[in-house]
Design the sequence.
């Protein structure tokens, strides 16, 4: 009986240490993947420029106003950035036209019967995961042209300004052949392929469920 108990204890210990080893390997692999993902996002962020419109509030009328400002500014930026070849050039052009952007936004706001102030700036902004057509851009910090309406406390709207993924013939989220080519030419092969991969991975370890209890 004692010999049987010793063997049983040995098996339990072996299983425990085996599972612990698997957990360590999985954790190390996950940490490595997370690090590589962050590096990839940072490299992609250096080569693109985002567009960000912040509504005054989450009220229905303020949200509708945000979309009208988006449409007007987006139409203008689509023309201004049509021949831009880099994110840096796009940023420079946008900065040079801040007064026009503010004027366009204020005119829309005035026509809708409001008198909100408008702010325009280039900012480092935290964006969530966002998909445009076949491309999924990872969450992280990106340079963005920001248009802030009033208090800027409402839900936001965002897009990719360079390469152009929201202004070509429309201010909505589209990816045409020209934009796809520019994106592919702008990014490295690894960066480009990463945008086409599924970003959400979820692995469940049932034998660790007790940690959630």
Sequence:
């Amino acid at each position: 009986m004692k010999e049987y108990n010793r063997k049983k204890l040995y098996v339990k210990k072996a299983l425990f240490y085996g599972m612990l080893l698997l957990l360590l390997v999985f954790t190390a692999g996950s940490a490595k993947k997370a690090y590589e993902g962050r590096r990839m996002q940072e490299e992609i962020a250096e080569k693109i420029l985002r567009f960000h419109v912040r509504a005054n509030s989450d009220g229905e009328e303020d949200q509708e106003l945000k979309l009208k400002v988006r449409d007007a500014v987006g139409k203008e930026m689509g023309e201004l950035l049509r021949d831009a070849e880099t994110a840096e050039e796009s940023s420079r052009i946008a900065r040079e036209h801040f007064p026009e952007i503010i004027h366009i936004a204020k005119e829309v706001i005035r026509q809708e019967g409001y008198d909100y102030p408008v702010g325009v700036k280039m900012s480092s902004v935290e964006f969530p995961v966002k998909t445009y057509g076949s491309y999924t851009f990872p969450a992280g910090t990106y340079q963005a042209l920001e248009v802030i309406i009033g208090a800027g406390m409402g839900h936001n709207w965002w897009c990719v300004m360079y390469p152009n993924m929201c202004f070509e013939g429309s201010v909505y989220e589209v990816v045409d052949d020209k934009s796809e080519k520019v994106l592919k030419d702008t990014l490295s092969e690894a960066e480009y392929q990463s945008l086409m991969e599924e970003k959400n991975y979820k692995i469940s370890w049932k034998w660790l469920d007790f940690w959630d209890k």
Remarks:
- DSSP finds six helices and six strands in the chain.
